[in-house]
Design brief:
Elements (H helix, E strand, L loop, with lengths): L2 H4 L17 H14 L17 H7 L4 H8 L7 H15 L2 H4 L3 H62 L17 H18 L4 H14 L3 H13 L3 H14 L2 H13 L3 H12 L1
Helix pairs in contact: 2-7, 3-4, 5-7, 8-9, 8-10, 9-11, 10-11, 10-12, 11-13, 12-13
InterPro entries: Cro/C1-type_HTH
Keywords: Coiled coil
């Protein structure tokens, strides 16, 4: 028998360590249950008079088991009213009277109700937090759906504009392969294409702008007009689009178109772009 077992506090199994997450109500109930257990006495039949009641024997008297009794005394679990009534009755019997145990059954039951309500409050708090998270997720989902709708509308608008650009102006005429003369309409059309590419390229949509330029310069515009597009992009400081257009145009177009576009660039003083276009065609 340890010195702790001989202390007035009672057997060592009664005093449990409370975890930090045990709320005050359950802690108070568990301490009261421990006080009642200290009044329990062992069966002295055939035993020496200094024997202390162990946890297994106490659990048997209380129609429970050692594991459940340990959880009750540590505040991890709130016992049912039947267990409390049994414990209170046994404690009063061994102590000699209700007055000897120092607390009424109603007070113990009140402590139990407080612990139960406390547990419900914790669950309500958890549910409230989950409800807030759900509301936040729903708002985020609605925002994403609105963004998708906006993107789909923007995509449809871009596709319509690309289709309009791909259609030659009426009456349809074939592309001029050999004629290098530039009309005012040619220059204006090429500059409009460059302006539209600049607008599309805003907001990290360079790929969309380049796709429009590639389709327009290869299917609609003449090499001379393509050169005007490149010059306009440089004037608008759209250097990335201009560099990419030089690469794809030199790679995809025939030698004659590339040479005509390069010659126009050279005559307009864009010697670097003219050379870059020719080098791109040779790769």
């Amino acid at each position: 028998m340890t010195p702790e077992d001989r202390s007035p506090a009672g057997p060592s199994w009664i005093k449990k360590q409370f975890n930090s997450d045990v709320p005050p109500g359950r802690r108070a109930l568990a301490m009261t249950l421990g006080d009642l257990c200290r009044h329990l006495k062992p069966d002295f039949s055939g035993q020496s008079g200094n024997k202390r009641l162990n946890q297994s024997e106490a659990a048997g008297r209380l129609r429970s088991n050692p594991s459940s009794l340990s959880r009750f005394l540590s505040g991890k679990t709130v016992p049912g009213p039947e267990f409390i009534e049994t414990l209170y009755k046994e404690a009063c019997t061994d102590a000699g009277s209700e007055r000897a145990v120092g607390i009424s059954l109603d007070d113990v039951m009140s402590l139990r109700l407080r612990a139960v309500d406390e547990r419900r409050c914790v669950r309500c708090a958890d549910l409230s937090e989950q409800a807030e998270q759900l509301a936040s997720l729903r708002n985020e989902s609605a925002t994403l759906r609105a963004a998708v709708t906006e993107l789909n509308a923007a995509k449809a608008g871009l596709q319509a504009r690309l289709a309009a650009l791909a259609r030659p102006a009426p009456p349809p005429v074939p592309r001029r392969r050999g004629d290098r003369r530039r009309s005012r309409n040619d220059v204006a059309a090429a500059r409009r294409v460059a302006a539209q590419a600049e607008e599309l390229g805003r907001g990290d949509r360079q790929d969309v702008a380049l796709a429009m330029l590639r389709q327009t310069t290869t299917e609609v515009l003449s090499p001379v007009e393509t050169a005007v597009v490149l010059l306009t992009l440089r004037q608008r400081h759209q250097n990335r689009l201009a560099d990419n257009l030089i690469h794809v145009y030199g790679r995809d177009q025939g030698d004659r178109d590339v040479m005509q576009a390069a010659l126009e660039l050279h005559e307009q003083g864009a010697h670097g772009d003219a050379g870059a276009l020719l080098r791109s065609a040779m790769r």
